[in-house]
Structure formats: structure tokens, C-alpha cells
Structure of G-type lectin S-receptor-like serine/threonine-protein kinase:
Amino acid sequence: MAGRVDRGSRLLAGQDDQAWVSDNGTFAFGFSPVDSRKDQFHLGIWFAQLPGDRTLVWSADINSPVSKDAVLEFNANGNLVLNDGGATVWTSNTSTSGVEAAFMSENGNFILYGPDQLIAWQSFSHPSDTLLPGQPLTVSLELKSSKSQSDGGYYTLKMLQQPTSLSLALTYNLPVAVETETESAYTNFSYCRDPRYRM
């Protein structure tokens, strides 16, 4: 069945023709080169039928590309594991969830299914910088942009729980110091949209 991924499957970053594709070929899950480079890659989901450079709609970590030697394995324990240079750089943490199969769906959601078709993990619950139709943004989630090449800052968009309502907050985050590359814990700029007020 197209879209289904069985345990034991793997993808290699340096193999451009490898991807897990949805039933009708709308979305693909795999490695996408960074800015047309052949030595750095993002693990992500993209529109498979659009011409030109791949448009990512989800990434395991948009700010931490991996090398051409990176390997993604859907192992026997039902865990997605991304290894690069002998180190594990990302995992779905589902080795104890009884995952039986994975599925690249036509709406862009990559899903790991446990017993009785219960969802153990899904990309819709771990958004990066894009929301797709039907994908919720709840108070426990946030969107995070890629880092600016000029100052290393990045945007986050999240829902805030207020006493009587929800607000949408846009924040720009700057590094504390470029030399340490540690990020600030304070908000540099925020925009909050309260539904009680009109723009």
C-alpha cells in the first residue's frame, strides 16, 4: 500500500531518490537538501508534486541540518531514529508505544500507529514553521521559524491561555551573545491578539 511504511525501513540522506510518499503522491517524507546543497540535509515533509526546490511543511529541526551520511531508520521497536556521524540527533521516542506501522497521509501528516490503529506519534502534533489545512495549533504547541542569517534570531508563534480567553503571541528571539550561541529566555518583541478586541 502506498503511504505505508513498515518497521525496518530506512532512508539515506545522500540518496536523492529515496522518500516515503503518500497514496496519491501529494506529500513525501525524507531528506531535503539545504539550499540546493548536496552535503547538508533537513529531515522533513514536502509537497512532492510542486516543481522546483522542495517546499518543506515540517522538519525535525529546521535549524540543525544533517550530513549526507545521515540515516533515518524506522526500527523494529517502532521508533523513528535519525543518526548522523554515529550519534542520534532526533527520535520520535515511541519505542515503548507498540508502534506497528507508519503512514504518510495525503493531508501531509506523518503518523505512527500503535495497536488498534491508535496514533502513537504524528507530525501534526510537532509542528515546525508551517500549519497545514486541518492541523491544529493548541496552547501546548508553537511554530518556530528558521534562524536569521544576519543576527541568529528567530520567530515563535504560540497560543497563550488567558483567564477568560486565548491570545496569539508572536515573539522574536535574539541570541544573548553570538560568541556563546545561547538563546535569550526573555521576549524581545511580542504581538498578542486578544479576541475581545478588533484590529
Remarks:
- The chain has two domains: 4-125, 142-193.
- The first strand starts at residue 4 and ends at 6.
- Confidence is low (pLDDT under 50) at residues 185-190.
- DSSP finds no helices and 19 strands in the chain.
